[in-house]
Amino acid sequence: MIKIFNTLFFLLISNLLTLSNLKSQDNLESIIDQKKRIEFEIDFLNRNNYLSVSKDHIFLLRENESEKDLKWNIKLLDYNFKSINDTTISLDRSYFINKIDEYKGDFHLFFKRNYSNDKKYLIIKYSSQNGNIIYQEMNFPLSLEVKKVLYFKNYFVFLSKTNNSKNLISIYNIDNNQLNNIYEFMNFDKNVLKINKINSSTFGVIVSEDNSNGLKVISRSVYDLNGNSKDKIRIENKDFSVTETRFLENKYAISILSNKRSRESVGVQYNKLDNNMAVSQKVHLFENLNSITTLTNYKKTKRSKFRIGELFYIDSLSIYDNKILLTIESLKSDDNNDGFSNYQYIPFYNTYSGTYDRKINPRFGGYLHNYFMILSFDYDGEIVRTHAKKIDQLQTFEKKIYVEYIFGNDYHLSSYVNKGKIFISKHFNKIAAEDKEYTYDIETFDNETTIKTETNPEGTYHLGNKVFITYGIQNIKKINNDRKRVFFINKIEIID
User: Fold this and answer.
1) Calpha distance 165→185 (Å, rounded)
2) How far apart are CA 173 and CA 150, in angstroms?
3) 439-469 core/surface letters (b: 16 or more CB in 10 A; e: else)
4) Is the CB of residue 193 less than 8 Å from the CB of residue 207?
């Protein structure tokens, strides 16, 4: 009897110890450890909290109300959430934040002045080294919506859209406050998809246009900071439209393909480059990739036609372990909202009018993220390994990629945050190995209960190795049953 009791007691203690050490909900093979957490209490409906990261710092921008001006509080933290600097700037109420960009450890706050015909902008440079702040006001000659900003030592490069959807590239010289516009892209049959830095003195302009057969082709033109064209690369396919292209080391280009009369993605194209020419080409259709057809339950027959029904965007293109790694994610606009979605009505406080404003399009329900893929190529463009996954009901208001990746020799990790949960997939590089899935509830402080995790804003940043932070807004019930609404930052580590 004593022996049986001791055995049962041992099993009970062992189970309790296992449960106490378990961080992942679904599997014992991986532990997801929440290292640290920091909270900032915020008012009801306040969403004006913005986060960015650099190699060494976390940058937090928070809006605070005042009687006359608009106060913006800047907090600079290290990765242990220790405060490095805390400062507040005052701006006219007509300014609202457009984006935050990190460049060489410093943070650039890009503000647009409302009620100014979109001509007046302000860039505030915040130095993470000493907390110095530099204000740079700019006036554009046209009414513009700035889509992208590139930062150089003495220049800003802007990609903008005019009110009638024309493209404009602008180069701003910080030293003499001169604006140099490149007008050649202000053509309706040419659409500038993006701009990107090539090196410290040149940038690329990625353009989509139709060829004589009605198929879309991609070209990249390289410019110096005086606006002079240096060279041009053209990517096309005789049977498919090329909807997006990413270049790697000026040696390789990988593109997303679609059919002629649809932007729906049907496959990927690999090009090897030589002297600004595409010298070789390999096409891989999704219908021929087992990981994708298995995911969509597609059975190939003579009469069947494969459709995934998604528009994919390129997230990253890199070289790891002598292989070219491509990550892509689908984004689908939800324009048939039921009127009750969290994305249909997103109130935000208009500090200029003193009222809560509503989105312009009440039927827009956000972007649906349905699939992501990891594709591995050898240097000849042959596919070595593919991973395709369904995303679990991720719907966001911002049109951007949300899945983060950690690449390893034996396996790759993918993760995304959705409604207070972190979803992690472990993709093994061995052909026969099955992927493993883990789910983790973002933890609050001890003995506090999460009532709701809001979906806007919400996201993750990969900090290196297997460490990342996740952030968002939570409604929490405290130990004494009082409630609070907080903007939180959690530091997470994946331990195998």
Assistant:
1) 11
2) 12
3) ebebbbeeebeeeebbbbbbbbeebeebbbb
4) yes
Q: How far is CA 63 from CA 235, 300, 348, in A?
A: 44, 55, 12
User: How many CB atoms lie under 10 A from the CB of residue 293?
Assistant: 17
Number of domains in the chain: 1
pTM of the model: 0.85
* Whether the Cβ atoms of residue 474 and residue 453 lie closer than 8 Å to each other: yes
CA gap 44, 95 in Å, rounded = 22
Quick check: is 460 in a domain? yes
HSE of 438 in the Cβ direction (CA atoms, 13 Å)? 23
Domain-embedded: residue 357: yes
* Residue 419: inside a domain: yes
pLDDT at 262: 85
Alpha-carbon gap, residue 401 to 318, rounded angstroms = 16
Q: H or E segment at 84?
A: strand 83-91
Q: Establish if 61 belongs to a structural domain.
A: no
pLDDT score recorded for residue 29: 47
Backbone angles phi, psi at 455, to 5 degrees: -95, 0
Sheet arrangement for strand 178-182: 144-151, 155-162, 167-173, 178-182
The dihedral built from the CA positions of residue 215, 216, 220 and 226, taken in this order, carries a sign that is positive
Cβ neighbours for 229, distance < 8 A, ≥ 6 positions apart: 221, 222, 223
Whether 211 contacts 232, CB under 8 Å: no
Helical ranges in 278-318 per DSSP H: 290-295
Tell me the C-alpha distance between 111 and 237, whole Å.
40
Cβ-based neighbour number of residue 313 at 10 Å = 18
Nearest residue to 382 (alpha-carbon basis) of 279, 289, 495: 289
CB 324 within 8 A of CB 252: yes
Encoded tokens for 250: 């000026």
- Dihedral over Cα of 359, 361, 365, 368: its sign: negative
Tokens 């609050």, residue? 444
Q: Is 317 left (phi over 0), alpha (psi -120 to 50) or beta?
A: beta
Q: Block means of pLDDT (10 residues each) for the chain, length 496 residues? A: 44 36 40 88 82 94 78 94 94 85 93 75 93 91 87 94 88 93 82 93 94 93 94 94 94 95 92 91 94 84 82 95 96 71 46 45 78 96 94 83 90 90 89 83 89 85 89 92 93 85
Query: What domain range includes position 321?
Result: 21-53+313-377+392-496
Encode burial over 175-208: b for 16+ CB neighbours within 10 A, e otherwise.
eeeeeebbeebbeeeebbbebeebeeeebbbbbb
